[in-house]
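In response to reviewer comment 3 from the previous cycle, which asked for concrete evidence that the modeling workflow produces usable outputs, we include below a single protein chain processed end to end. The sequence was submitted unchanged, and the resulting structure tokens are shown without manual editing.
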Amino acid sequence: MFKRAWIAAQSATRRSTFVRILMAALVAGCLLPGLAGSAESKDPLLAYGARIIGDDARTRIVIDFDREPRFSVHYIANPERIVVDLPATAFGFPAKDLAARGLFRDIRYGKMDEESARIVLTTARPVKLSLAKVQADEAGRGHRLVLDAEMIDKQAFAELVKTQSWDDRAEAAQTTSAIPTPEKAAPGDFVIAVDAGHGGIDTGAIGVDTKTEEKQVTLAFAKALADRLNKEPGIKAILTRSDDEFLSLSQRVLIARQNHAGLFISLHADALKQKEIRGATVYTISDKASDKLAADLAERENLSDQIAGKETVAEPPEVADILLDLTRRETQAFSISLAESVLNSFKDQVGTINNPHRHAGFRVLQAPDVPSILLELGFLSNADDEKLLLDETWRGRIADLLTEAVKRYRTGVVANGG
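The workflow returned the following structure tokens.
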């Protein structure tokens, strides 16, 4: 492994590049077991370099790997995207080296699960890959993946989507591998699904000062909250994700239902263009947004699957209406009760935005039989909020307040025969 990192370093013009590569490998857990934990049985690939050139007619992407990568390419519509699937990969190059340009308006890459990674190229117009191949580096420094994209018309792109071949078995494994086996709860335990928003290839918002990714903030909070809840007798908290993996919105809902959760709490720390806005917000589901801020947030959060290159399968309108009606009739009142309990706990303890209980059509809150809230802990776009979100002491304080809110909610449900 050191040899591969050294090969990568030789291709760089500065020693700092070598340091970045070593750090990326350490984060991936593939170097120095004493420092990064136990060694993985399968070392991930190391993508140590990247570059993109071209214009709005043709664009080339080149990614350097420490060894030959296996890859597959698929096309997805609405919006038009090219998905490149890879085995487990540590991305060790600076993000600016693969910043979107030319035919691409957005480029995302990252972990999907323990065995796979993905690059999602969102296009500015319909495109196809005229070339997609792996070449050995002439100097013996691993291999490079070369992707040449060229513009095509909408009809040609639609034909690519229609005629491509998906490996159903591989896709099915990818879809379900991240869903854990339902955890055992003691008879009578009140189960709470704690959902760390974003993850893997879907980084979420970025901190205004520290550039910390939202997926890291939400996972730290989720673990702290679950640990605190599990100290309470009769309460069992489970995590929808326990590490940096991507979960689709439907997978998150399914995990809660498989574990027979009585509550679902999804944690987020968004970013806004208005950097002066700060404070916590609690959202519940509704077919009509309470305001533009809630509507915009729901639209962004509902794009999570698209960011990760998931094909959106539209449900018939009548099915969506039925699901939303079930949610409204059977669980919305309980969700609102939980939201009010959280805000009562936060009163005079935690800063909130104006009108802190809002609602919109969040897909992650659509479980028809699980009362659910989405909690914006604060905004990573606000420097003061960002400091609090990264403060371990503050995190523990929020976990205590949320635990009190859950206990109060549970007491009310039991008292009313729920």
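The first strand starts at residue 45 and ends at 54. We consider this sufficient to address the reviewer's concern, and the full set will be provided in the supplementary archive.
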